[in-house]
Amino acid sequence: MTHSDMNYWFTADTHFGHKNIIKFTDRPFHSAEEMDEALIANWNARVAPDDEVYHLGDFALNSPARCRRIIARLNGKIHLIRGNHDKTADACADQFVWIKDYHELQIPDSDAHRGTRHLMLLHYAMRVWNGSHHGTYHLFGHSHGTLEDDPTSRSIDVGVDVHGFAPISYAEVKTLLEAKSWVSPLSQS
């Protein structure tokens, strides 16, 4: 694993400040404040200040002032892929590197074709995406771990409900996706 593998992080569905998400997804917290503090601690235990973080939507459901205070406490340079609950994040757009509806990311990876891994980032899961037939990874959130995983698809839910209420590294994403039984349709005749 090279240094470049270690400084990319992915997460989704933090829902900072959203009390009802605790009930909706059976999160092990008694209050939104307790959840927020756990999410912040878990995030900062993994992510360094200069790391790149790609949050795949539903960042916060609280006031813009509270959202700004949370962002200020989080390590990393945060890029936000807009989810269906990101009005608060939009009001704090200047706190993010950028906010987009989707993003196609390229990460240096000596194991990937031509030394670059392509990732399709979207809040929602897709069955096919740009480059899916070439093995491009697709990362998503939104489903809070309720969408059945397809063992033949190079896609993964990176939401906090699936990954111990913390972001996951590119190396972890790669390990999970490369363990799947994906076969390029281009190699079949």
How is this structure best summarized?
It comes from Neolewinella agarilytica. Helices cover 26% and strands 21% of the residues.
What features would you describe in this structure?
The chain contains six helices and nine strands. The chain has helices spanning 3-6, 19-24, 32-46, 64-73, 87-91, 170-178; strands spanning 8-11, 52-55, 77-81, 98-100, 102-108, 116-122, 137-140, 155-157, 168-169. The protein has a five-stranded mixed beta sheet with strand order 4-3-2-1-9. A four-stranded mixed beta sheet has the order 5-6-7-8, with helices on one face. The longest helix is centred in the N-terminal third of the chain and has 15 residues, at 32-46. The model is unreliable at 1-5 (pLDDT under 50).
Total strand count, please? 9
Straight-line N-to-C gap: 34 Å
**How big a fraction of the residues is strand?**
15-25%
> Largest sheet at a glance?
5 strands, mixed
Q: Which residue ranges are poorly predicted, with pLDDT under 50 across at least 5 consecutive positions?
A: 1-5
Can you give the mean pLDDT? 92
What share of the residues lie within helices? 25-40%
Which structural class is indicated by helix and strand composition?
Answer: alpha/beta
Write down the CATH class. Alpha Beta
CATH fold title: Purple Acid Phosphatase, chain A, domain 2
**What would CATH call the architecture?**
4-Layer Sandwich
User: What sequence of helices (H) and strands (E) makes up the elements?
Assistant: HEHHEHEHEEEEEEH
GO molecular function: metal ion binding
Keywords: Metal-binding, Zinc
Protein name: Calcineurin-like phosphoesterase superfamily protein
Domain Calcineurin-like phosphoesterase: 10-145
